[in-house]
Design a protein that fits this description.
Elements: H1 3-28, H2 31-40, H3 47-64, H4 71-95, H5 102-120
């Protein structure tokens, strides 16, 4: 296993884990999720759909790790997560809620890193 392949595996599994965790928080209606979404103007009714998108992205990344799956599946999942978190960053900027913008920024960075490593691997 080369260094790029190892980085691909580690970063992808990390991205999967944090997206599953955030989807679980969305579905459970965690207090921090409800407060943050209210501050940035995301309707509460969107939370289950956002959780589904996060879970779909995580599943696509996970399936993309297997040799039997086409690499394009993982790339598409990473692209979807990049777009999802670009939207989250946009909502934060539009609402001028910048004190916690590092969180969607971090999730965005992991999705971008996963995409870059999929392309490189």
């Amino acid at each position: 296993m080369t260094g790029t392949q190892l980085a691909f595996l580690v970063v992808t599994l990390f991205t999967v884990a944090i997206n599953v965790g955030m989807a679980a928080a969305d579905l459970a209606g965690a207090r921090f999720v409800l407060a943050n979404s209210a501050q940035v103007g995301v309707p509460r009714s969107w939370l289950p759909w956002l959780a589904v998108l996060k879970l779909a992205g995580a599943a696509g990344l996970l399936l993309g790790l297997f040799d039997a799956a086409p690499r394009a599946l993982g790339a598409a999942a990473a692209c979807g997560l990049v777009l999802l978190y670009m939207g989250a960053l946009g909502f934060h900027l539009r609402a001028r809620v910048l004190y916690n913008i590092a969180f969607p920024g971090f999730y965005f960075a992991t999705a971008v890193a996963s995409l870059a490593l999929i392309v490189a691997a």
